[in-house]
Design goal:
One of its GO terms (biological process) is chorismate biosynthetic process. This protein is α/β, with parallel strands linked by helices. The protein has helices at about 20-35, 45-55, 70-80, 100-110, 145-155, 175-185, 215-230, 250-255, 295-305, 320-330, 365-370, 395-400; strands at about 1-5, 15, 40, 60-65, 85-90, 115, 125-130, 135-140, 160-165, 190-195, 195-200, 210, 235, 260-265, 270-275, 280-285, 305-310, 335-340, 345, 360, 380-385, 405-410. Helix 3 links the parallel strand 4 and strand 5 (about 85-90). Bound molecules: shikimate-3-phosphate and phosphoenolpyruvate. Phosphoenolpyruvate binds next to helix 3.
Length: about 400
């Protein structure tokens, strides 16, 4: 299937309600399974959250989490800690290429019973629950923060809690902080200093309702649209200033592209293109916010700004190799772009010459589809395999319609 995107009209003050953060939702689902007194509001309706929710209720001996990285990593630790579990945990063919060895090694150090079913270091995994896990573990922190979040999420349910020693540089750090803040919200005490995290056990929690903030990574596509417009303004809900999500840094990053964020009193934000961009080059280290790299690269391309992004080593092991995917697709549009294993360098060039429809391949990566869609404001864009967006944002195309971009789906 292909989606043809076309700018149809300019909607002045569109309002878009975005589904809950999938990162917050998937943490809260694991915590709710461990501590049933938690009620969750504004849960994400993304495939990744639906698949985790089903997996937690499943009695099937094989649990398939498709493309959902957080579900894969969080459930690995969850099933280890659940005494009576005996499951094969698997995922899509891409998931079977995404490494999990460091997490398995850490859990085995704690006493877990996990076997690789096919390739050493990768899903599928055969997991059997154990009676007691050790209260100390070390893990390298530079490959994926999800491994560490997985350990932290089960930590309060362990009899003696858990002391985690992080080795080396810490990647995607705000996601660790998100996990810790959610633990704190349910009453867990922790200490995080330097390379050491200590999490105390918790036996009972007070019944409580936690409301998930909407997804900031999903908001990034609206920031890009506004940046690429001449004077668009969009209101998004439900967002707050003191977000748990690192991607909330978009509000600051997009000031570089002339976009101003206003936090309204009613949990909405209004983002507006305030001024033309006088910037010719941007340099950003995205080690803390890998999921907005594609959006920023495409915005820079659309605005004709040179873009140098560093801290991108994790992009190679996400839904696709995002560095190679960006290079291929931006080159197709005429960009001069170089990538290394951890950075991207795009030279400014003009998109004014593009008039015919450009087709973007998505490589089973929702963020490839959504990051390139805003270019429809500048020239007609077609997206291959468009429904990949449902991994994080099922209503993406209907929400684009609200701001004046129509989608035609062709088989
Ligand atoms: O913990 C999380 O919710 C996430 C952590 C990040 O992964 P890495 O830590 O692997 O970079 C991010 O890219 C992913 O989309 C969600
Ligand atoms: C990398 C992502 O997700 P995950 O690792 O959870 O599959 C993402 O949503 O961009």
């Amino acid at each position: 299937m292909i989606a043809q995107l076309k700018k149809i009209n300019t909607v002045k003050n569109a309002v878009v309600a975005i589904t809950g953060s999938k990162s917050e939702s998937n943490r809260l689902l694991i915590l709710q399974a461990l501590f049933p007194d938690i009620a969750i509001e504004n849960l994400s309706n993304s495939d990744d959250t639906v698949v985790l929710s089903k997996a937690l209720k499943s009695t099937n001996p094989v649990v398939d989490i498709h493309h959902a990285g957080t579900a894969m990593r969080f459930l690995t630790a969850y099933f280890v800690a659940k005494k009576d579990s005996n499951v094969v945990l698997t995922g899509s063919s891409r998931m079977q290429e995404r490494p999990i060895g460091l997490l398995v090694q850490a859990l085995r150090e704690m006493g877990a019973n996990i076997e690789y079913q096919e390739n050493e270091g990768f899903p599928p995994l055969q997991i059997k629950g154990v009676e007691k896990l050790k209260n100390k573990v070390t893990i390298a922190a530079g490959v994926s923060s999800q491994y560490i979040s997985a350990l932290m999420l089960i930590a309060p349910s362990l009899k003696e809690g858990l002391k985690i020693e992080l080795i080396g540089d810490i990647t995607s750090r705000p996601y660790l902080e998100m996990t810790l803040k959610l633990l704190k919200e349910i009453g867990v005490t922790y200490h995080f200093q330097g390379q050491n995290i200590t999490i105390s056990p918790l036996t009972k929690i007070a019944p409580q309702t936690i409301t998930v903030e909407s997804d900031w990574s999903s908001a990034s596509y609206f920031y890009s649209l506004v940046a690429l417009s001449s004077n668009m303004s969009v209101t998004l809900s439900a967002y707050k200033k003191d977000s748990l999500q690192g991607d909330a840094s978009l509000a600051t990053v997009y000031e570089n592209f002339g976009v101003i964020t206003q936090f309204n009193g009613d949990n909405t934000i209004t983002i507006t293109k305030e001024k033309e961009v006088d910037l010719t080059e941007i340099h950003l280290n995205l080690i803390n916010t890998p999921d907005i790299a594609q959006t920023i690269a495409v915005t820079s391309f659309g605005l004709g700004i040179s873009c140098n992004l560093t801290g991108l080593h994790t992009l190679k092991i996400k839904e696709t190799d995002r560095l190679e995917a960006l290079k291929t697709e931006l080159s197709k549009l005429g960009a001069s772009i170089n990538v290394t294993n951890k950075s991207l360098h795009l030279k400014a060039n003009s998109v004014a010459k593009i008039s015919e429809v450009k087709t973007i391949e998505t490589y089973q990566d929702h963020r490839m589809a959504m990051a390139f869609a805003p270019l429809a404001l500048l020239f007609p864009v077609a997206i291959e395999d468009p429904m990949v967006v449902s991994k994080s944002y099922p209503e993406f195309y209907s929400d684009l319609e609200k701001i004046g971009i129509s989608t035609t789906f062709l088989e």
